[in-house]
Specification:
With 99 residues, this protein is mostly helical. 60% of the residues lie in helices and 0% in strands.
């Protein structure tokens, strides 16, 4: 979905496009409508950067069971990709010799 915000509205709000996306992400995260991952993505930031932005605004992190389960799934998928290499073949750097 593309959303067009007229330049005069951005000027009136004294925000850049990047700042507007960060503000929307902060608001939706604070209302618990977006997870940390989605809010970070919307803001165009790494999660650590978004967490720093939250802290700079005095906003609390919320981390529930659903977010934990999602993180566990992501970590498991990352581990599988790492163990099997990018193309599904074992990573030669981590292959064990059979000799």
């Amino acid at each position: 979905m593309n959303l067009v915000i007229p330049d005069d509205i951005l000027r009136a709000a004294q925000l850049t496009e990047e700042e507007l996306l960060q503000e929307v992400a902060l608001l939706l995260f604070e209302q618990e409508r977006l997870t940390l991952g989605y809010a970070s993505r919307l803001a165009g930031m790494y999660q650590g950067e978004f967490m720093e932005l939250l802290a700079s605004r005095g906003l609390a992190m919320h981390y529930d069971v659903e977010a934990l389960e999602e993180d566990v799934k992501t970590l498991r998928a990352m581990r599988r990709r790492h163990d099997h290499g990018v193309n599904g073949l074992p990573d030669p750097a981590h292959a064990h010799s059979t000799r």
